[in-house]
Amino acid sequence: MNKVVLSLGVWIGVGVLTFLLWVFSLISVLIFGLWDRDGRITHNVARAWSWAVVKMNPLWNLKIEGLEHLDKKHHYVFVSNHQSMADIVLLPHLSVPYKCFSKSSLYKIPFFGWSLSLHRHIKLLRGSLRSIAKSMQEAKSWIKKKCRSYFLWKEQGVGLEVWGNLKEEHLN
């Protein structure tokens, strides 16, 4: 019974924090949108949300090692096997601004999906070559605007060779 109550409390807390993520993302876009063209302010909002979600869960003890090896001036392509939803919460802890290739159905989730849109992550329709091509073009435009890293999930149905080509052709 205690585990059920704890789990319910954590999920309610995540819901409230996700609503606040959307509110503060909206405020940051409205106030700083003209000056925050590369999304660093909205990224910091996501980092605060991520930090709060981890701190709120008494069963999580997060320790990150190796951040000193990430140079904020360089591009990275992060890939996750996505065996749980924890990577969604933990990714902002890397403190490297990124764009996320996210499946289009996530954008329909109230507050969370709306936050993805406000943070200008890259929408991807799984199984659609046209969507993959469009996503790649969007990624290229972000690279031209400002140094940007990318995060994708291996399960997205896109061969890693495609992402390798993105890295080789446009991130170097």
Give a description of the structure:
The chain has one domain (2-63, 71-171). The mean pLDDT is 78. It contains 6 helices and 4 strands; from the N terminus they run H-H-E-H-E-H-E-H-E-H. It starts with a helix and ends with a helix. With 172 residues, the protein is of the alpha/beta class. It is globular and about 50 Å long. Helices cover 52% and strands 10% of the residues. Helix 1 (2-32) packs antiparallel against helix 2 and helix 1 (2-32) packs parallel to helix 4.
SSE layout:
Layout: H1 2-32, H2 40-56, E1 77-80, H3 86-90, E2 98-103, H4 112-118, E3 122-124, H5 129-145, E4 149-153, H6 160-171
Helix pairs in contact: 1-2, 1-4
What are its keywords?
alpha/beta; 172 residues; 4 strands; 10% strand; four-stranded parallel beta sheet
Give the tally of β-strands. Answer: 4
The total number of structural domains is 1
Rg over C-alpha atoms, rounded to the nearest angstrom: 16 Å
Overall pLDDT metric: 78
Structural class: alpha/beta
Strand content: 5-15%
Shape: globular
